[in-house]
Amino acid sequence: MDMAEIDNSLLEQFFEPARQQYIDDKGFTEKVMRQLPDRAMSLSRWWTIFCMVLGIVLFFVFEGWQPLLISVVRMSHAFSLNDIHPIPCFMTLGVLTCLALLELVHRMERMQV
After folding, report:
1. What is the per-residue pLDDT across 50-99, written as a single tens digit (0 to 9) for each?
2. CB–CB of 89/67 below 8 Å?
């Protein structure tokens, strides 16, 4: 056992009686705890921001606008199913799906708060 584990064990033993004790505060503690930001929610938000920024950067690095622009131009000139390339369509569908999932996650987070 190293020193940190011994210190943690001693602290847990010291605070165990206080942990068992309950003080009636008419729900004040629970209200305060609900108002504090949750660490998991904070990490989730930062992870979402990181993924969105990474997606935008990769979109520009790999010139993702070109296939989308070509598809839009082709569709506007002569709408024919033979002219539509499937890869930009799948890329667009993937981007829209990710955006929809992100919106769903944010709505669920807001409902829990």
Report:
1. 999 998 999 888 888 788 788 777 767 766 666 667 787 788 888 889 88
2. no
Closest CA to 49 of 113, 92, 105: 105
Query: What is the model's pTM?
Result: 0.37
Residues 6 or more apart whose Cβ sits within 8 Å of residue 58: 64
Q: Are 65 and 59 in contact (CB under 8 A)?
A: yes
Token reading at 24: 């009636």
CA angle 98, 104, 99 (to 5 degrees): 25
What whole-number distance in Å separates Cα of residue 113 and Cα of residue 101?
19
Only one residue has tokens 């369509």, namely 89
Rounded to a whole number of angstroms, the distance between the first and last alpha carbons of the chain is 41
Separation in Å, CA 47 to CA 43, 44, 55, 105: 6, 5, 12, 12
